[in-house]
Specification:
The protein has 137 residues and is mainly beta. The protein is 12% helix and 41% strand. It has a single domain, classed as Lipocalin. The protein starts with a helix and ends with a strand.
Length: 137
Amino acid sequence: MKKVLSIFLFCISILSFAQSKAPFTGKRDFVIEQGASGSGTPAYYLDAKTNGDVHFGFVQVNQADGTETKEIINAGKYNPKVMKVHFKTYNETFYVKFDKEKIYLTDAKGNIKKSDDCCPVSEMAYTNCNCEGKLYR
């Protein structure tokens, strides 16, 4: 009986540590800080792979000379609570979580951030908006 209970607890612990499956597979573009966007702002995207890995990337075109800067990183297995994204090119680190429709800028614990930069241009009179954006195919 003791052995059966030990095996049962072991199986439960493995399941509890297993990563969740991403809500979709494939590439999605996104903009979170809409108030801070412009012609030189990087275009961000994520790519959820079938093995559960999530890649984040950006492409930025210098409007003055047309040079393109881009980077792709593997942020690890999908985690519905929070994922850390670190781009080495600009030493930029941020935390996000996403579902099937939206992506959210969060703190390290997964709490959704609020900022004036996250307010849509159509709502510039508002301040301290949730930092969220649609995921576009």
